[in-house]
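Following up on my earlier thread - several people asked me to post the actual chain instead of describing it. Fair enough. Here it is, all 156 residues.
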Amino acid sequence: MIRQIRKQTISEAVRETVTGAAAVGVIVGNTIHGCAAVDIEGDSLYLSIPSERNAGAAAVTKALWEGTDVPLALTAEDGSLKILRALPDRCHISGKVFARFYMKRRHEAPGGDISCVWEMTPDGLTAPDPAVVYSRQETAASLEDRHLDHEDLRAL
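Reply from S.P.:
Thanks for posting it. Predicted structure:
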């Protein structure tokens, strides 16, 4: 199935939630798989992922192929959680978009790394089901996933 990318104006509620997010992750079942960052530029939502080898990254890839949305967990500084459903449009593994988020990650966390940046279209913001308890799983890039200029690889 080929899906036309439909850019739409991102609502103020989504912009405020994304801007105020202290942590972001992809929800798979009852687990939030941590991501490096989420950001809005223009009418595009960008999600950078530290490693492609986890259930969160797999869920975004599957959603792209199936033309479905994926739930993103946005946690505010006060710990409150909102769920943003988003449709993946394309994955950047090089180029200007990737470079911008890669350098931003390196600036925020020296030695930090990302494997890709997903460009997505927001499709709805909701409150989480209070009956569901989410656990968080952070996934760092393994040595095999790191970029050649990563400090951990210089020592080898």
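The radius of gyration is 15 Å. That should answer part of your original question.
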